Structures are given as C-alpha cells and as structure tokens.
Amino acid sequence: MTARTAAPAPAVTLEDVRAAARLLDGVATLTPVEESRGLSAIAGTRVVLKCENLQRAGSFKIRGAYVRMAQLTAAEQARGVVAASAGNHAQGVALAAQLLGIDAIVYMPTDAALPKIAATREYGAQVRLVGTTVDEALVAALAESCTTGAVLIHPFDHPDIVAGQGTLALEVLEQVPQVRTIIVPVGGGGLAAGVATVVRALRPDVRVVGVQAANAAAYPASIAVGHPVAATGMSTMADGIAVGTPGLVPFTLLQEAGTEVRTVSEEDLSRALLLIAERGKLLVEPSGAAAVAALMADPGGFEGPVVAILSGGNIDPLVLLRVVRHGLASAGRYLQCRVRIDDRPGSLASLLAEFAASGGNVMDVGHVRTGVDLAIDEVEIDVQLETKGPEHCHDVLEHIRAAGFRIVKQR
C-alpha cells in the first residue's frame, strides 16, 4: 500500500471523458433530470435530481465498468475479469461482461444485499462471498487476479473508471446548463473525481461537493493529511459508499480540484430516502440518497440551481422497510409514549378513543403492570402511533393531557 500510494496517480482529462462518452453511446442510458419542488422549498433554491438510479443495472457503475473493460486487449478479455463490490459495481461489471462477451468473477461481502447478489448472477457473473467489507472482498479479488491472470476491474481506482463515471457530468451540464452546485455521493471517489474533472475543465464556476456517510468517511481525514488514510469505522446503511480507503487516482483528482467532501448522519440518509420516495416518487438506496441528505442537513448552504445526483437504486426490500421506518421516526411521523391510567375496565378503551380523536393512528399497544412507583390500581400503557409530523405529535400529546391522562414518557 505504501509503494502504491507513493507513486504519482495517472491524470484524467476532459478528452478522456469525452472518449468514454463515445464508447458508452448506445450502452449507458441518458438518465433524466427531475426538478424537485419539495427539495427546492427546503433549500430555498432550485433543486434538480439527476436520476442515475434509473441507469442500466440500477446505478452509475455501468459507465466506468464498461469503459474500462471495452479497452482491454483481446488477450486480456480472453483471460476474463475479476472485481469486488458491495453490489452496484458488481452489477455494472457483470452487465458489461455480458455485453462484451467476457467471463467475470465478482467477490462480494458475505452480508451483501441478496437482490444485488441475485442480479449480479443473473447478468452472468460468478459470485463469491468473502469478508464483511468491500475492502476485504477487494483483497480476495486481487489475489484471484494474481493467481489466474484475470484483469482486476477496480471499483474506483483507475483512470478509465473515473473517465467513465465523468460522463455523467457531461450530461448534467447539458441538461441543467444553469447549474451552480453539483452534489455527489462519495465512496472510493470515482464518480466525484469524474464529475470534478469535467466541471473543472468546462465550468470552473460550478461548485462540486462530495458527500460521505459519517460512519464510513475516509475522505475528510485523508484530505486533512494530504493522502489516503483508512476510515476509523465502517457502520452505515449506505453500503454503496462504505469504502474504507480512498483510491489514489480519484483522491488526487479531487485534491487537485479542491473538492469539498462533507458527511451526513444515518438519520440524514433515512430522512432523505423517505423524502425522495414520498415527494419525488423515486426509489433509491441509502448511498443514492446521500446528496439529498446533505442538502436537507444544510438547506441554506448551496448556491442554486443545485443538481443532486441519485447515484443508485439497488436497495434490498428489507433494508428499505427498516430505512423507511427509521426515516418516519426521524421525521417525527412516529410517536411513542407511556400513559398511566387506572387499572379498571374501560380505561384503556377511553385512552385509545382519545388517541383516535386526536388524529393519531395507533400501531401498537403494550401493558406495563409492574413498577416500584405504580399503585396497585394503576397500569402504564405503551402506545406507538403514526402521526402527520412533529407539530401533530405535539398536538396529540396535548390532547391526551387535556383529556385528563398522565403521560410519563414520550419520544
């Protein structure tokens, strides 16, 4: 690692990106941009979503994977390719291999989302589950490459990958020519580096902001010390951007461009995913919502028009269920409280009737009959409700108090 990071990173130019765009003609989809009135109201400026979640294989990854693999020699293609990914790069490589007639092996973490594993196999790649992180899977992929001669298709640390991802920025500048800020999810940094390369060459007046999950953020510390360093933690729902160490190629490009990289919390991500689904009618994975999460976390911090890149939509339905519940709670759409009532017939029915009158939708009810501060004729009722937001939560609680009930806990 020391020897690799000490070497100068290959440059990526605007012409490299334009050449990549020519390779991708007829392969990658020109994904739409959608103006978001809801986000525009939050940000106080025009916000446009670049819907790369609607790209082939469900994310931007097909761009870089295809560009890298299409430029392999015939001998290299004959040896096959190997890759490592939590899911999106896996599908991009598998689809590119299918289109180019190349054998592909993809190493994925053992806890990778089942739909991503299934989709990768359906595209024709052989999937091998190794380790618990992308970094561990990458070690196995590198070993496979060294042993068999298969070409390693790195998820982000190669000039061809960066050039392919940068084609997205060419589209953004044509689709939203008035853009002043582009917000990009960041894992290893390939997409952000490609975007920064294009913007730096064509529109230096446009600000590019990268976003990482705070629980898996290697870039802020790396930028601070001037070279890639490993993240101190890797615990986030945003598996698509959970990368332990920045790639040298993208890191160098982002550093040269002076690109800011900020972080968002798990609550920010879940709220963003929920808003995109509710207001934008779009399904994205947590990493794909990172740009919107940054916008919502700092609504006045970006000059508009703003383009927020929705980088992927490959979400496990079980994760979606958990994230939506978490997002609803973070947005004040759930209320949990404990109410002390008399332990006699009709008391619970009266309490639930008051919750119904307040407009809250009761989801779950539990009894607590033991407690050192409970009288022998008292019981506490745990209630979970769906509400219409934080203001409605306040109104529900005030209604219950006005009805004569004692609330002993709320959250």
TrEMBL record:
<dbReference type="InterPro" id="IPR005789">
    <property type="entry name" value="Thr_deHydtase_catblc"/>
</dbReference>
<keyword id="KW-0663">Pyridoxal phosphate</keyword>
<dbReference type="GO" id="GO:0009097">
    <property type="term" value="P:isoleucine biosynthetic process"/>
</dbReference>
<comment type="similarity">
    <text>Belongs to the serine/threonine dehydratase family.</text>
</comment>
<dbReference type="GO" id="GO:0006567">
    <property type="term" value="P:L-threonine catabolic process"/>
</dbReference>
<dbReference type="GO" id="GO:0003941">
    <property type="term" value="F:L-serine ammonia-lyase activity"/>
</dbReference>
<comment type="function">
    <text>Catalyzes the anaerobic formation of alpha-ketobutyrate and ammonia from threonine in a two-step reaction. The first step involved a dehydration of threonine and a production of enamine intermediates (aminocrotonate), which tautomerizes to its imine form (iminobutyrate). Both intermediates are unstable and short-lived. The second step is the nonenzymatic hydrolysis of the enamine/imine intermediates to form 2-ketobutyrate and free ammonia. In the low water environment of the cell, the second step is accelerated by RidA.</text>
</comment>
<dbReference type="InterPro" id="IPR050147">
    <property type="entry name" value="Ser/Thr_Dehydratase"/>
</dbReference>
<dbReference type="GO" id="GO:0004794">
    <property type="term" value="F:threonine deaminase activity"/>
</dbReference>
<dbReference type="InterPro" id="IPR044561">
    <property type="entry name" value="ACT_ThrD-II-like"/>
</dbReference>
<dbReference type="InterPro" id="IPR036052">
    <property type="entry name" value="TrpB-like_PALP_sf"/>
</dbReference>
<protein>
    <recommendedName>
        <fullName>threonine ammonia-lyase</fullName>
        <ecNumber>4.3.1.19</ecNumber>
    </recommendedName>
</protein>
<dbReference type="InterPro" id="IPR002912">
    <property type="entry name" value="ACT_dom"/>
</dbReference>
<keyword id="KW-0456">Lyase</keyword>
<dbReference type="Pfam" id="PF00291">
    <property type="entry name" value="PALP"/>
</dbReference>
<dbReference type="GO" id="GO:0006565">
    <property type="term" value="P:L-serine catabolic process"/>
</dbReference>
<dbReference type="InterPro" id="IPR001926">
    <property type="entry name" value="TrpB-like_PALP"/>
</dbReference>
<feature type="domain" description="ACT">
    <location>
        <begin position="336"/>
        <end position="411"/>
    </location>
</feature>
